[in-house]
Amino acid sequence: MNHFAAADDISGRADLDVVLRRFYTAAFADPGIGPFFTEVAGTDLEVHLPRITDFWERALFRTAEYRRDAFGPHAALHSVRAMTAADFGRWVQLWHATVDGLHRGPNAERAKAQGERIALALHRRLAGEGASTEGVDGLGFVPLAALELRSAA
Ligand code: HEM
Fold this sequence. Notes:
Distance between the termini: 31 Å
Number of helices: 7
CATH architecture: Orthogonal Bundle
Largest sheet: none
Strand content: under 5%
Bound molecules: protoporphyrin IX containing FE
């Protein structure tokens, strides 16, 4: 592997550790979604990282257990400060950029697709039925336009 290509696929937890640390460092620093972590939730990254790594290791490889409530914290956040389509679009944009910057391959593609699906599912559930989901097929590929990615850029 050379220094200039993101050549290898995500192959397990060690890779996820690096991806997630980079992703959350960027997310915490982001002017749009960072405040949800730093101001609203007061998230301790060193506590969050092992949990979210379990979540992704389970999602991609089924080699870890994740039995925590992934929806609850977002509902709590949303009740304090609304999480908008633009926020989820920004999350997806950062997720894609982080994965693409480090990896290439089927697992990297699955990680991006699953991130989009979960972002849309969270958004739909928080926004409630009928809110900015028109024309969106909930179980299929998430059209980025539905997440107002462009306006979040
Ligand atoms: C605008 C988008 C999002 C924001 C601002 C956001 C923010 C947060 C915050 C502040 C927490 C609480 C962390 C803590 O314990 O202090 C959290 C938890 C969590 N988030 Fe998100 N999130 C977003 C989208 C997503 C997406 C799309 C996923 C999945 C791919 C996700 C996965 C999780 C999981 C699994 C937890 C629970 C971790 C645990 O305690 O077990 N989040 N999120």
